[in-house]
Amino acid sequence: VARTASRPLAAGDISTFQSFIFLGGQLSLALCVLLCLNYYSIILGAASLSLVITYPLMKRITYWPQLVLGLTFNWGALLGWSAVKGSCEWSVCLPLYLAGVMWTLVYDTIYAHQDKRDDIVIGVKSTALQFKEDTKQWLSGFSLAMLLSLCVAGINCNQTFPYYSAVAAIGAHLAHQVYTLDIDKPEDCWKKFASNRTVGFLLFIGIVLGNL
Q: Name one GO molecular function term (predicted).
């Protein structure tokens, strides 16, 4: 698409073969990290490979590639816990994982609206094309599900007031983000997408202060 035409592979600065070499290097380093963890985490990490491999193909198959991205990208919610504890506390990890998936659906749907005109021409799919003018209603639902899941995860691991304060601040941020979003202006979509770094920062600070 026009927005990504200058990226190295699309622009022809590197060959497909060179990109596979680079990918192989990244995967090799990732494997070295994974093998440093406990056996439970090694198996859990390896289980994500099916998602990692299939995600890039999903735009050709379904209007919900953002959901598959969420399932893939947030695997760390499971792996991070097991790497420290040796197993998963599912009453905490699953709500946290679900919250991450819902969050990905929010920010990546916004991201996808940047390219929707090109996507229609080249025949790839996205939640932006699926939701169309109903996007804000869907984003509101995903945001609510995210906040509820974060609360459940917090309750199940005895989080304290700073954590829930951060979740409330995240809710206010997401509400403003969705309310002011202009899905027909790519520059505004990018601005709203990038503002999700604030969501991550707020949650991180809330977890740290809640534990302290």
A: prenyltransferase activity
